[in-house]
Amino acid sequence: MNTYPYAKTQIKTTPFPVATSSPRMAKRASVRKSALLQRFDAILLSEMDHVKLLRRTDTKYLMSEEQLSRALAHLADYYRVLEVGGRRLQHYQTLYFDTQDLSLYQQHHSDRRNRYKVRERVYVDSDLAFLEIKHKVNANTTVKSRMQTRELRPQIARDAEPFLHAHYPYQVEALEPKLLNTFERITLVSKHSVERITIDVGLRFLWNGADVSLAGIAIAEVKQDGFSNDSAFVQQMRALGVRPTGFSKYCIGVSMLYPEVKHNRFKPQLNHIDRLLQEGRTI
User: Fold this and answer.
1) What is the pTM of this model?
2) 41-282 in CATH: which number?
3) Mean pLDDT in each 10-residue stretch from start to end of the chain (283 residues)?
């Protein structure tokens, strides 16, 4: 399966100035995280059908990897961790599509409740690729539709057009690649309820040779069929003082790599990222 190393569209790139984590801090966090994950029972991909949750309630959290490690230390009795080919950290690549004027990004920046995201994603360790459409129905509900593809493709392929026309209400021909990201993902599955948690670490945004790394930051998303405070992960977040927050990897990446685009709405998240990285360098 081919992956997509760099986009070559000519755009101006001046990354949003954020702190970076030190290599020593990143290595220390990685070693601790791997050790903590070994405490969890494993779940295989073939056992995940009951938590696909293509229509779901999402709750997101932004934290340092140090805070993530503190939470993981208390969660092994409540969750299993996805294991693929012996790996408990899976590698992902995502290519986002938008119109020339970034209309899908603008929908999010304007806080439209009815909005869309179009992306191609490679689940590297599973050797799977999908074209995915995420439809935000309202403040708390997301519907995801997807079709399997052979690889990450740098343009909308003709065989994908019927799928897009069925699930995406705008002009398919206007979509073009706009941003690439890579990250590693931990997936936890509740032992007691229909709940899946994805935790993304090592996030990088790439476009036109520009490269912004958010090493030291973790983005967690609690996916449920209806929000429940009984979630052990939610309780850990509350105990650590980590509050739910809106966070879109696509929008944050655009904010960092498209400085000419309005991004006032995302400045609180950008400032939060900077604070977490600054604090991490002092640990």
Assistant:
1) 0.85
2) 2.40.320.10
3) 43 40 58 86 86 72 94 96 92 96 95 92 90 85 88 89 96 96 95 91 92 92 79 95 93 93 92 86 52
